[in-house]
Each structure stands twice: as C-alpha cells, then as structure tokens.
Write a structure and sequence with these properties.
CATH class of the largest domain: Alpha Beta
CATH architecture of the largest domain: 3-Layer(aba) Sandwich
Largest sheet: 7 strands, mixed
Distance between the termini: 40 Å
Structural class: alpha/beta
Helix content: 25-40%
Number of domains: 2
Bound molecules: pyridoxal-5'-phosphate
Strand order of the largest sheet: 4-10-9-8-7-5-6
Number of strands: 15
CATH superfamily of the largest domain: Type I PLP-dependent aspartate aminotransferase-like (Major domain)
Radius of gyration: 21 Å
CATH topology of the largest domain: Aspartate Aminotransferase, domain 2
Shape: globular
Amino acid sequence: MTSGPHIPQERRLVTAIPGPKSQEWLARRSEATSAGLGMAIPVFVAQAGGGVIVDIDGNSIIDMAAGIATVNVGNSADRVVENVIAQVQSFTHTCFTVAPYSGYVEVCEALNRMAPGTFKKKSLLVNSGAEAVENAVKIARAYTKRAAVVVFEHAYHGRTNLTMAMTAKNIPYKEGFGPFAPEVYRMPMAYPYRWLGDKNNVAQEALDMVLHKIEKEIGAHNVAAIVIEPIQGEGGFVVPPKGFLPGLAAFAKANGALFIADEVQTGFARTGKMFAVEDEGVEPDIVVTAKGIGGGLPLGGITGRAEVMDAAVVSGVGGTFGGNPVACAAALGAFATIEEDGLAAKAAHMGEIIGAALAKMKEKYAIVGDVRGRGAMQALELIIPGSDEPNTKAMQDAVKYCQQHGVLVLTAGTYSNVIRLLPPLVMPDALLIEALGILDDALAAASA
Ligand SMILES: *Cc1c(COP(=O)(O)O)cnc(C)c1O
C-alpha cells in the first residue's frame, strides 16, 4: 500500500510533547497568527505519511485525525504527488471559467460516476466544504424557486455566513459573528443516545417530529432543500438510525424539495463505502464533497442531478480558484488510490478493529456512555458515571494523555465530550491497534 514519503510506521517519542523546537515555533505562532485559530496538538510538523506525523523534534506520532478526514489516502500519497508535480510543471492556474483544462472535467466525470444514483449527473468545483455547501443551497434555490433550507441539531456545515447559520453549535463557530443568513430552519436530529422518547423507535419518532415541524412552521411547499450530514462530523459522529435518511429523502421527493447530503467529512471511502448515504441506498439530489477529495489539496465539489445543476444562470456559479488545476490533479491521484487500492474495503476492515476495541472500552470504563460510527469514522461519548451528563474533563484528560503518549486524536460534540477517530485509510493495522491501546490506557487514567 502506498504511504507517501515512506516514513517508518512507528510511534516514537524522543522529547516531551511539545519538544523544544516546537515550543519555539509555538511562541512565534502566537505572535504572528490570529488568536481565533484553534490547535489540536501543540507540535509543528516536519513530515507525514501513512499513519504517522513526524514533528520537528523527531517525535513520530500516530495520526488518528488525517487532517480532519482529509488525507484519507495518506499524506503525500504517491499518485497524488506524481500528478501534482506533473501539473505544476505544465501550468498552475488559468481559471476554469477563463480558459478550461481537462483535469477539471475529469474530476467532474469521476464525481458523476462515483456519486450514488444512476440518473445523469453534473458537477461544479469550488475551494472548500463551506463553499460547496453554499453553492448547493444556491443551486437548490435556483432550481426550486424556493428559499427555505432545512438543517438539523448538531449539524456542522462550515464557517461562512450562510453555513454558520446552518451550523448548530454557537461556541466556537458562531459566537460574536452574527447576524446570520435567514431562511434556515433547524429540526430535531435522530440522536439515539440522547433521544428522550422511545429509544427503540428513534428514527420514526424523529421523522414524525421533523415532518410535522416542516409542515406547520415552514410549509413543505416553501422548502428548497433538506441538508444533512449522513453521519454528523463536528456534532459528535451522531449516526441517525436506519430509516431516518430514507424518510427525509422520500419526503423531499414527494414535496418538490431537494435532498442534499453533506458528505464533506463522510465521503471518499471514510465510512467503508465511497459515500455514507450508500449504506441505506439513498440517492441524494445533490452530494456535497470536500475534505477527502484531493489527498490534502483544497477542493470542494457539488454533484447532482443534471437538470438541477444546470439551473444556475451562466456565470452564476464558479470562482477564481475553484477547481484549480493542481487540486484537480491531486484529486485524480486520490480517486485512483481509493479505487485501485480498495480503500473503502480497508476502511470497513479498520472499522471492525476500531469497533471491537471501542466496545471493550465501553464495557471497561463507566465514563464511556456511547460508542458509535462506521468504518474509519468512530467515536466515544464520555459521561459522568451513572448519569448521562457530558464529561468534558475526561475528554480533555484522555486527549492529553494520548498526545503525551504519541497519539493524535480529535474531539467533537455539541457537549464537548466526544473523542473521534479519523485515521488515514492507509494506516497499517499494527499502528491502529497500538493507537487504540493508548486510547484504552488514556480512558483508564481519565477514569481514575
Ligand atoms: C469540514 C466540514 C465542512 C466545511 O468544510 P471546509 O472545507 O472547512 O469549509 C462542511 N461540512 C462538513 C460535514 C464538514 O465536516
């Protein structure tokens, strides 16, 4: 399996975290960069590939973040590097809407082929996930000639003005940044662990509530689109129970609204299928992609029914950098890696290892309230033992323990109590098992 710069696949600590060189750069970072930028691990990166990040002090850290599900194919994956080098040596930018080039068309052809649904599809490329979500909403409004956008509790769709309105959590994403875009309506999410009704009937109860609220509070005939992450990302890897997504898609279809799947975090083999909606055979009218699309280069995609994608007026969509040739070359390398190396099956295989390990942790530690996710996208929700109160401190302690032992894990969740795992799909099993062992130790320490 390709693993980019072929760095030894090992966990190795040679200094404390952060080491002295990282500390120097951390000081420069805080002088030079906006205080509004967060940081998951306080080390500066020298190299990354396969399942590890090597910092400038020489520590080799197991990467359970993949740049937030971005380097699904691993950092500097061979085919991505080859394509990028060839492209930068030919030309770096003409702007697709000034003078087009083949890479953009090839990425769109691949997205049209890979996205669920046998109907004719077309695509549009942009720079980021937020921009992709915005364009999906613009196109849905142009096609339906309606304004209302339905989103869900715990949703994350980005940081631009419209996508902040669509994102659920106030601190940190929205605090002080309003006023927000209108015509965005938030609905209850089918969140099994925290469902207050019948836990055996969450999908149906949630669906009934959502459809009732849409009818009474918006009017189904005013809805342009229902936008949902098939598994919520920043919101804490909330997995809607079977039936919820197909129910929403069927309602959208029956009422002339579009069903838009935000697959920015779940897409490109992450959950064991190319796209997470395939798990229940849902065929969205529009699939929104970014993160894992380009092996780490900035790119976003909007892929949908041809007649929907053609609803925008000429020059109504596009942008200076959208579908930049270097990013497109990278994406073609990433797609080849995912398909030829069978990374969807690899993600499913990793999911079995992760799922079994997390289930054991739930048995062993009373601070683990819930374990959920699919494939190489799984999480633990931590609680105060004997209650369902969120346990933010245990999350922070466990994450810190992991870092100090050379494992990078990310947090998530509306209640800031979720540890999420998003390893690169090229991580060797032994390294994954080692990282899960450290996480187990971290939970033991956080429980004490
Ligand atoms: C990260 C993310 C976005 C925003 O993507 P950016 O590239 O950061 O703008 C949108 N939706 C989901 C589900 C995401 O995880």
